[in-house]
Structure formats: C-alpha cells, structure tokens
Amino acid sequence: MAISISVVLLLSILAVVFIRNGALKISHALVCLLLGFYLAGTSMAPTLHSGLTATAGLVSSLRP
C-alpha cells in the first residue's frame, strides 16, 4: 500500500507538471494513463468514483 501511494504521488506530480507545461505528448499521456490505473487500485477509488459521478450528474442537469 505504501508503495502504491508513493507511485500515485509521483505520477500526480508528473501529470501536473506536464499539463502546466502545455505540451501534452504521447509520453505524458502515458503517465496520466498510469496515474489513472494506480489511482483505481488505491483506497481512494470509491471516493473519486462517487465524486466524479456527482459532478457528471450536476453537469448533465444544466440547461444551456
């Protein structure tokens, strides 16, 4: 568990740096993809899933 949290933290930092740089390349997208897979395996996954579901429900209820 401690190793996966460290990997998630490292990949999160790398993803933020890549996104703020403004040049998201294939290697950067791969880091973001790996971050998603590692986040799905942590204990934070249910919280993230419910938060994303609630956000999607809120956005879908908006009318233009």
Based on the model shown, name its key terms:
64 residues, mainly alpha, 3 helices, 81% helix, 0% strand, flat
SSE arrangement:
Elements: H1 2-21, H2 26-40, H3 45-61
Helix pairs in contact: 1-2
What does the model show?
The protein has 64 residues and is mostly helical. The protein has one domain (2-61). Helix content is 81%, strand content 0%. It is built from three helices and no strands. The chain is flat and about 35 Å long. The N and C termini lie far apart (44 Å). The mean pLDDT is 78.
Short account of what is shown:
GO terms for molecular function: serine-type endopeptidase activity. The chain is mostly helical and 64 residues long. It has one domain (2-61).
Q: Please state roughly what percent of the residues sit in beta strands, choosing from under 5%, 5-15%, 15-25%, 25-35%, 35-45% or over 45%.
A: under 5%
> What fraction, in percent, of the residue positions are helical?
over 70%
Question: What is the overall pLDDT average?
Answer: 78
Order of helices and strands: HHH
